[in-house]
Amino acid sequence: YPGQPQLFQLESLTGRRGETLINLKWSYIQWDEQVINYVDGNGNKRQVITHGIITIPPEANKTQHYDNIPITPSIKEVLDSLAVTKRSEKMLERVIENYWTRKTSHA
Questions:
Q1: pLDDT in tens, 48-77
Q2: CA atoms within 13 A on the CB side of 23
Q3: Cα radius of gyration rounded to whole Å, the chain
């Protein structure tokens, strides 16, 4: 199924249930790249890059609370792949529709 590999990857990367992620909508994503600097427990300076946040509303979440997932570089890569899959699927739908439209108009 289109998007299934990405769903498994998102489950692994986010720790969220498949049932929650399958209801994910593009409108839940706020893209906003940020660089967060911090010092770890050993005194080392660290940096984390996030590309935004996914906010899953209570009605799509088993916990009945908003769930915020930071978009890490790995999660962004999966979301980008999912967007490509979605565009390819729409293109295939148009090709099939055009084929059937021509076929039925010549019948």
A1: 899 999 999 988 887 788 999 999 999 999
A2: 12
A3: 19
